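subagent[fold] <- orchestrator: predict structure for attached chain, return tokens only, no commentary.
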Amino acid sequence: MFLPVGVSGLLEALETAGFAAYAVGGCVRDSLLGRVPQDWDIATSARPEEVLARFPHAIPTGIAHGTVTVVWEGEPFEVTTFRAESAYTDHRHPDQVRFVPDLEADLARRDFTVNAMACRRDGQVIDRFGGREDLKNGIIRCVGDPGERFREDALRILRALRFAACYGFRLEEKTSAAVLESRELLCYVAAERIWAEFSRLLCGIDAGRVLREFPQVIFAILPELFPMEGFLQYNPHHDRDVWEHTCAAVEASSPELAVRLAMLLHDCGKPGCFTLDGEGTGHFYGHAQKSLELAGTVLRRLRVPRLLGERVLLLIHLHDRPVFPEERWVKRQLGRWGEEVFFQWLAVKEADTLAQALAFQPPRLANLREVEAAAQAVLREGQCFSLKQLAVTGCDLLQLGIPQGPQVGALLEQLVQAVIDGQVENQKETLLAYVAFLSTSTGEEPGKGGNPWPNM
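subagent[fold] -> orchestrator:
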């Protein structure tokens, strides 16, 4: 296995000082998979005080657990003493850490075989638990007894699912059974840690499959979603129950966190809004609002960053609204929501459509393609749909004699709408003349009209 020069140099420095040292964990796993590791962790026989003595400018970032951060050739490396751990009373952190002299004991405490490999300075991989074979076969397997590993650290339950989702791997049979049996232990894990793992899981290439295979684990952290499983929709547009539709929608969506979260939560209010008409057709009137309420509860409990949470709620709010491939409508929505939200909205609608009954997909997908093409044409041609493209500014209006105040902004918005409606060209002289025309034709100061935003 190839080691970067900086990693090799740090290992050599430790070895020269008389200590054993190896690259360990995720960096070895990712290197063997042909991926570029995000960081390189070092395990060594040197105790923390010996590492600090060898590297005077090192930082004792986790000294109680044997971790020192060494800056080598301008790059930070976490250097941790070989250790063993015992008793996890809180199901998250070891009650006692004991430094040990050999690598094998250190590898034995790790979570999964694919993370329990080490690499020497010469590139030779040390694999005592079959991690390399599991990588080859796409298997996530616990080191030792799976139940014990999850009782030690309940977050490993989500880590197992995250690795499966992100790498497209499968859980080994005993590991899979232990994940299900141990899921209630997740209540001991802080919301921030759950969010850190779950957000990465949700953006994995196989997130839909993992959600489908381990719903009980997902419901342990998101109980609001439990009623969706097996809830039949009795509607010709849907050939899946609500949970299966949700999994398919996540699967069909782009791996963008806001979009994936919106797809996960967009229909969570459906079970609470179900009605059956006289012909036996199911309806979910008001489900978008109910989904918003439940989604808000979920996002707050998971400590989702505020701006991301607001974006997710907006996409849920928009997901059921129709879209039209008409230029003026497209420009109004681009102006109202912005480019990013607009295209995320289309992505949400596309994923929702792809998770519906096949017979209804073609016309809806064709409509979305037309809307997207219209939006791309607006952007490509530099057409005006917001104040950013408008050929006049507030300063221009003030110079024209418009009194300073809220009406300046209102007038600018009015001008944008006039440009969108084709009433006036987006040219400075023409727009200023239009402002003068508004003043003389209405007898009122321009900008004192009603809300310039039309209803959607």
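orchestrator: received. Logging for downstream: The CA atoms of residues 139 and 277 lie 47 Å apart. Residues 231-380 form one domain.
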